[in-house]
Amino acid sequence: MTTPETRYAKVGDDRVAYQVLGDGPRDLVFTTGWWASLDLEWEEPAIARFLRRMASFSRVIRFSARGSGLSDARPKDGRDACLHWTEDLLAVMNAARSNTTALFAMTNGGSMAIRFAVAHPERVSALVLLNTTACWVASADYPAGFPPEELAGFSRFARKHFGTERFARVHNPSLDHDERALSRQAKYARAIASPKAVAEIFEIELERDVRPDLCAVRMPTLVMTRHNCLWASLPQGRYIAENVVGARFEELPGSDSLPYWEAPDLILDHVEEFLTGNRRGAESDRALAAVLFTDIVDSTKHAADLGDAAWRELQDRHEEILREQIGLFRGRLVDTAGDGVLAVFERPDRAIECAQALHTALASLELSIRAGIHFGDVELRNDGQVGGMTVHIGARVQALAKAGEVLVSRTVHDVLVGSRFNFVGRGAYELKGVPGRWEVCEVVERLDPTGPYETERH
Question: The whole model's pTM is what?
């Protein structure tokens, strides 16, 4: 499923950006509320996987409201901002030829989705709300809300930190140790709005109270709230479910405001079952990739000779070089376990070049590694890990390598026939846990005079 084209709907002279993904039997508008940057979201693997799975059971429609991302600025006509958002959604639905849709909204989009469903019940077939509140401010008849001083603190925090990794970490705590994802989220936030604009919209949100609208919601409704979400508490989610006739409530694990990183398949399981009556579960995303395994030679001896502190410092430098070289050759570091490393590349030639560069770079630390590479179909998991037989074979090939060597499977050799690389056959082996015998080659600097593959070195 390719990245969808960004199109524009018209509201008067203004343009509203939208995308349509999938061709399922039912329409589903998926909105994060005020803020969206439709193109940039596809750069985050977790978001792309989430959207593609959602499009497996529906035709997904997404949009950036005016004032956000790729859309024009929000009009300064003195009207309620929620009315602008409603106009934008109607324009997008009409442009996408969607007469009736399910509406999946989260965070600050939830209250606007409730208003839209009440104002236009003929256009909404079902309502799904995630981490949503009907009213932000606590009162005597609404203790589930936040004290005014806490809300004022959030507004100050947004003005100071929106668009930074600190804001991303608070917004989605599960990313705390994923620096790459935090950096992408900070970049994404900067693309959708300025800190001042976010704080101003939040102040508008504080005045919104959709509690009176809940009793008028007549379509099937699913409400989901995370157990420890900072922005929408369980009591706030339960309040909505208890005041919408027939609504279903699901308590979710975790703390993230957004659904992409923490139990995303559980969320989509609930949505799919709610909308279709079936729960098929997630299908594994798969891709062709080259897997590179490396391992430090004689690591135990190094640790004994250097002592714990010096060895830890050397390991840290080793990992810095790994990350640098893997990035230079457009790979992705998947896992570091002890002294071993797993990285994936779109092409096997880049994996070989990276392994060769690592041998050279790590020699400056007086470290030697062994490297193994295989190319094939891998499973792409939601946690960023990879799996499948290709990974097992790559690990087994690496285990056969000696210090300073780059070994590849026969598959890699066959894919790169006629390339600039030279190979020498190292024989056929039984790889533990892998059916059959597998031929292995060494990447060498020069072609063996008797042939590139058939000659076996001893």
Answer: 0.66
